[in-house]
Amino acid sequence: xxxxxxxxxxxxxxxxxxSQPLSxxxxxxxxxxxxxxxxxxxxxxxxxxxxxxxxxxxxxRVVLHLLRGETKEASMMSHGCMLCGKCRMTCxxxxxxxxxxxxxxxxxxxxx
Amino acid sequence: xxxxxxxxxxxxxxxxxxxxxSTAVVLAERGISVAVFEKDEKPGGHLSRWHxxxxxxxxxxxxxxxxxxxxxxLDIPVFTGRKITGIRLLSGVNMLxxxxxxxxxxxxxxxxxxxxxxxxxxxxxxxxxxxPSVLTAAEVEAVFRxxxxxxxxxxxxxxxxxxxxxxxxxxLKCGVAHCSKLCCITAVKxxxxxxxxxxxxxxxxFYMDLRMHGLEYEELYRRAQVxxxxxxxxxxxxxxxxxxxxxxxxxxxxxxxxxxxxxxLDMLVLMAGMVPAVDLQRSIGKIVLEEPxxxxxxxxxTGYPLSVQVAGHPGIYAVGTCKxxxxxxxxxxxxxxxxxxxxxxxxxxKEPQYVQA
Amino acid sequence: xxxxxxxxxPFMAGFVxxxxxxxxxxxxxxxxxxxxxxxxxxxxxFSHKTLSAINEIxxxxxxxxxxxxxxxxxxxMHMSLAVGWGMMILGGKFETWFHTGRFFHDTxxxxxxxxxxxxxxxxxxxxxxxxxMDLGLLxxxxxxxxxxxxxxxxKVLGIKNTTRHSRVNRLALTFxxxxxxxxxxxxxxxxxxxxxxxxLTGTLGKLCFTSPMCAVVELPLWxxxxxxxxxxxxxxxFSRYLHIPTEMVLILLRHWGLRASTELKPExxxxxxxxxxxxxxxxxxxxxxxxxQQPFQAxxxxxxxxxxxxxxxxxxxxxSCGACENACxxxxxxxxxxxxxxxxxxxxxxxxxxxxxTLSTRxxxxxxxxxxxxxxxxxxxxxxxxxKQLLEEAGLSWVHLDEKDSICCGRPMALAGRTDQAATMRAxxxxxxxxxxAGMLVTTCPICLxxxxxxxxxxxxxxxxxxxxxxxxxxGRIKTETGLECFSYHDPCELGRxxxxxxxxxxxxxxxxxxxxxxxxxxxxxCCGNTPGSLSLSLKDRQxxxxxxxxxxxxxxxxxxxxxxxxxxxxxxxxxxVPVKDIAEVLAGVLIxxxxxxxxxxxxxxxxx
Lengths: 112, 357, 609
Hints:
The structure holds three protein chains of three kinds. Chain A is globular and about 55 Å long. Chain A has helices spanning 24-32, 44-48, 59-67, 71-78, 86-90, 97-111. Chain A is mainly alpha-helical. The longest helix of chain A has 15 residues, at 97-111. Chain B is an alpha/beta fold. In chain B, strand 4 (86-90) and strand 5 form a beta hairpin. In chain B, helix 1 (18-29) packs parallel to helix 2. Chain C has a four-stranded parallel beta sheet. Chain C has a four-stranded parallel beta sheet with strand order 6-5-7-8, sandwiched between helices. Chains A and C meet through helix 5 and helix 6 of A and loops of C. Chain A: It comes from Xiashengella succiniciproducens.
């Protein structure tokens, strides 16, 4: 079905609305790995990432997506993780990254 | 108690760095008898190993020279090569000990033990101590002071140099929770200096957050960007490995673009943070100055910010960076504040009728 | 003598109840058996495997040899309970047989034999059985005494921690403790009234219970004995005492070749028997590096699995150092069960590794050695550089497989309970390794070592660098100066307990300086505090474990703490006051270099093996 022509068009909203409350699935992930709130997006995890050499896996961005409510993006991005744990070794805040990855990538699984 | 007069002072200051000497000068100017004990062979602390200061580029030696001449003028005894390992409190007198030997007696003691630079070797992934082209910020100052050569071929006109912020700061894994506060501006200052030395060089700063809190720091940062072409990348460097021809291969993440960075460098500078130099082991009537262990914090004082007395020990004070990272103007202000309180304390003992100013 | 047998009803009720529940539970657990061993079972039933199982049952379920080896007093406690009780059950059977001439009786007859027949003597042989039964009782009572002492003062038994039991277990424990003193009293009163009895019951009866007044308490005491015994049997199938029969069945099933599932199925197959064979004896407590800090010791984990509550965090927090499994007297596959539990916790976890590059198309290079430093290798350039220096010294050529980018060996994935995903990475790495011609695969990371060795199909040997270096040193291909430096050595769990290499690093260190004894070493070593096994333990908790381990390592005042795993080195060195080095770094530091003569090429001219 084609849209009626109003003489202008619009695309989906790009803007995020951080005032939206966190969804229950995000909250569940945060309960499962409270360390996620420690993340300061320093990027060390992404810099050392074994999977990051081949994919767009970048954990701090997974966290950002998750905390902004973009669970799909967060989940899809984390699927490539090999759980090698190098990121946890270097994370200056000691986030249990592989635990978080397992919880976050399960989000898309449960939806499917 | 029989106190030998030649070892008796109103105030003894532990540490002959900038904070210790400044406090000593302020106290001596107010007629308090004061002595300084310094563990190193010469006074001056970290400042004596620095080349020039942010944000105005003043020579560190110039500033120290002024301070030394005041110390000399006021005839303040500075005992170098004397390490104080503990303080014993006996009938209102503090005994400053080196093991079992009493080095001095004083009514009040001011701890000016300063800080230590984080041991960059603990961040082994950066290869400090392993690759000669990895330096700490302090070593770069030594290069500026011409005490050591550049770690790359001096004929290299376009060296590629990166500064890594927050090495051993804000790193819970290393037991350092705090921000060392002055590495950001130090890196900017050093980046500019490198650019001045090698105008064709490429210089990057890898930061997590840029904290330009001081007077004119932001302006220096802007000038580094605009006038000197220093490039700032938000992201922590993750590892260094040997590259081709003596260079370094480093990995990082550009967190603003969300892309990985792989590059070759000729020099990597680690902005090693400030960590405590001593750990106070307190018991009744006794304080032992120990090596700090993993996660030990700076010296805490009671009633901060109104008071500067070391918690639970009347007559024991702390000044300067042994209480936490601080820049020189802050240390100077602190020295005045501490001196004022120490003076009140000493006078209230000497003249019981003395009313605190 | 004709006496009323009404009082045996509680015992019989409990006994029959226990048997019924056991039969139902065992059959339920065995339902999955056919899938695992189709058609094989009948053949194996009558093989020598059954005999060796019986041998193990005697050694472990009765004599408790593994506990004895670890701690004599604890071993004696367990042994005396089992041996004494066994003596009494067996002796009771023979005693009634001897006196009545019939082998089969009502079950209760042998248990309460002396109530019904207090006066039969039977000459010398009868006296033997009397004293024999008393000896059995005495042995059990000594065990019960030790068990009580253990609850009051652990130190006497040489342990620091005992298991905290659930309510039903405390109830069962109370019943068990009461059973034997009650039997002693009941028999003593009976013998006091009727004369006779063995050295224990008879003497006690003669000394205390000859007064006719005591006749009043005789029957109530036998009632109490019967009641407590019956009550014990009622709670047995729901308490940890289920381990008594289950351990024996478990040993049999194991000898018959059954293996536990890699999925968490605590009510099915061999795993069900493992879960219920845990007696919560507590041998896993003192050895756990996190004891006193974390609640996830194996005894508690098994408890949680049995109750179905709270096992999730215990599975994902545990560091999988393997100390508990090493100490377990029942040889329960604790590690496997934790991994299975992690898989269950994260059953929805999705991973896609279809992006993994195919690296086998590269030209086939050859070298003496393929060097794999693992994911941690890049974070520990010091170890890698030292190994390369030593290889160069020995004149060996190598290819550093993961110098630029790497693919994880897959062990962290497997430890997280996802062996299927680990297989994808294995395939990618096998292809990479297979594209070289080399004599051996050397890895600096014991985690990779175990994965390569146990899960990969490689046609070259896999060795840890400490093995290779010790071989090179024994062959005189690298020489070191023996300095005055003192070392304490930390056994990495993956190299020691899981890889079985305790000696090579020690030999190497002894050749470099002074190796100091450490309080907890070899199979008893502690944990560095950060393994890929633990998924969810918080940073603070991990650091506390590291600190506790460092305390032990720093105790003999070494100049250096040495280890042989990049992960251990990383964790320990971050927190230690003493420098922490890898074995290769220590070796490289005291190497007597002959590099002037050494001829070194990156490309190999000869290939070993």
